[in-house]
Amino acid sequence: MNTDHRQWINMMQKFLQRVLRKSHHHQNHSFIFTSSALILTTLFGCGPSSKDLAALNYIPLAGDDWEVSSPEAEGLDADTVAELYYDSAKLNSIYSLLIVKNSYLVAEKYFNDGSIYLKSNLQSVGKSFTSALVGIAFEQGCLPSLDQPFLAYFPEYVNLIKDPRKQEITIRHLLQMRSGYPWEESDRDLWEVFVAGDFLGLMVHVPLINDPGTEFHYSNLSSHYLGVIVDRACGTDLRTFAEEQLFTPLGAELGEWYTTASDDRYPMGTGTMHMTARDAAKFGLLYLNDGIFDGKQVISSEWVHDSLQNYTQNPSVGWPKEGRNVNRTGYGYQWWAIQSGEHHYHAALGHGGQVIAVLDKFNMVIVVTGDPFFLEHNAKAWKSEKQLINLVADFIASLPSE
Q1: What residues does the Beta-lactamase-related domain cover (predicted)?
Q2: Are 118 and 253 in contact (CB under 8 A)?
């Protein structure tokens, strides 16, 4: 709750007090008293008090991997930030909430099963990491062109594919989620086959639902194929490539990274990277700073710029709108563009409500992690995801316009 909001509430309190005083001389005293009490309860009974907010502790924990500051010192309203953490504490599935402003860690708190040391499964947030690895491979020359047919890296499957349109799918199409492959969770039978884990074989058997490059369809297979392409093009294990080219330069540590059920050769480019919330924030800061981390150009600024373009406007994702402040306005190279209130930003999002939000306008990164609900695609999991995404979106919408 910002200062202007509190001033407005104080004014309303004084106004209602005057109404109550005047009601002593009014024949409908009982009615006015009851109505005023209801208004007061609505305005003041549901939100945190100043005392509640002051009692919250979200001071960054000790550690040598981040320079720390405070929200106030970096230009954020203290009450607005405190209210965000107050709301977070009500959620059963949240693990962490971190705010980075002006390259300083200004707020940090862990909840439920979370801790500063926990390397949790960030689910589809990993897609944005896979995109970064594609960019590094492209800059290093492993990948000569994004407009190559993706099947150039899967020669063992070329003669098995009957649909000639699949020969036209490019690496760029995979990055933009415009390959023509469907969202696996849109069909129960397809989802069961997907979970079985023969991701490479599915490029043959899963039918396209539109011509490559013509429509957006969120596709886990597309992201996984990107990871395999980097592995094969650069002639190195994908995990090793990720650690050497991305995580080590960030001073970050990659935990578990699941492989597919039927082939443990390739980590899942579609997600499932495990890392701490602090390390996830470093990745967000990397994109906020045009690919530079600690003075080193880890990813080219051109790749960051291209990754955050909207190649699809207002992408339809096949599920109900998540909240009034969650408006998915575009999709880049495995990054979402979102509008919350008056503010536009980019985000890496994962099942269960994993979020890395990059707000260029405010020079800020917000990270939320929570229960990943791995392979649990049910009402409880979707509810949790919606809660955590809205937590971030509502906070961003509450930020001032200037």
Answers
A1: 122-368
A2: no
